[in-house]
Amino acid sequence: MTTTLLFVGKTTDPHIEALCQAYLKRLTHYLPLKVVIIPELRNTKALTPDQQKEAEGELILRAVPTTAELILLDEHGKEYRSMDFAQVMQKKMSSGRDIFFVIGGPYGFSSSVYDRANSKISLSQMTFSHQMVRLFLIEQIYRSMTILRGEPYHHE
Length: 156
Fold this sequence. Notes:
43% of the residues lie in helices and 21% in strands. The protein is α/β, with parallel strands linked by helices. It has a single domain (3-40, 51-148), classed as Alpha/beta knot (3-Layer(aba) Sandwich). Helix 1 packs parallel to helix 5 (130-148) and helix 3 packs across helix 5. It is globular, with a radius of gyration of 15 Å.
């Protein structure tokens, strides 16, 4: 079982990237983890938002095996408290299936990606940049691992 973080576009803010890398390094002690970056589309001014979502959707679906658990980071997804998210992670890891967390492009996901998804989660009702969502997701996965191991990182 591997957990894969699939992101559309790279993180351009060096401060956010440094924090992401710090948490990713910590996570390697807890679970097999990969980060896959799908390059941003070029010449998007000639594409409508729906065309851009479709093109990104094809790339996302090509990168996710049909047997994998596909979890979208989506504003309409389910919100969890950290303790509850840790239990979700435990259940998904126990299934033995590979897990893919996906953060899409600026316009969200195509209908084909939504159709393929096993679930959707939301980190907040607030809107964050995609780069910040990456950091928050990585930190929450790290937090869930420390909760499951009973380590003192999380205080409740």
